[in-house]
């Protein structure tokens, strides 16, 4: 497949519209779909999974779409593009939506093809702006902000040497990165011994362990390091 798949969460309590959205997007293998009929279910899914786009109804039972969007940005610290859907077409409503962090606002009724165009436009913009590498199951790395996401939950921003080492491991996955490769990529022409590399790799491994409950880095003694995706044996 030439196109990268997009994982989309659809949050909609109106059964007929939800079914239409599922039928329309589901016929295209580019899209992987999840569904939530209410705000609390949506928040649970968003906290535990990575999504490329969230299509979010405003008028939901329990927690409104405005509140969900606000929690995505402030509590979960996620930058996942959000498209709000609503019959509320007043300027004040749109100001509220964009004010809580929405990326787009689509007034009902709308053409499904228009929604698809907006999904694709947001996906392109998000990839370009954030340079997210998603080749590892369960792990995303934002090369622009040096932020690591594991299963879309608990972002960790790396700095300095840790960020450069992690990026080498991401780019090489699932292959091993040797001590010499790390030294050249991180320190360039400077002389660096293996003890220094091991010290930095250990610090990075410990940081990932504390944040995600899994170290993610496997040591091959005498050779180097490689990443292990969530669920793989360490």
UniProtKB/TrEMBL annotation:
The keyword Flavoprotein does not apply. Residues 131-229 bind DNA. Residues 131-229 form the OmpR/PhoB-type domain. SUPFAM superfamilies: C-terminal effector domain of the bipartite response regulators (SSF46894), CheY-like (SSF52172). Pfam families: Response_reg, Trans_reg_C. The keyword DNA-binding applies. The modification 4-aspartylphosphate is found at residue 57. SMART domains: REC, Trans_reg_C. It comes from the Bacteria. Keywords: DNA-binding, Phosphoprotein, Transcription, Transcription regulation, Two-component regulatory system. Residues 7-123 form the Response regulatory domain. This is Two-component system response regulator.
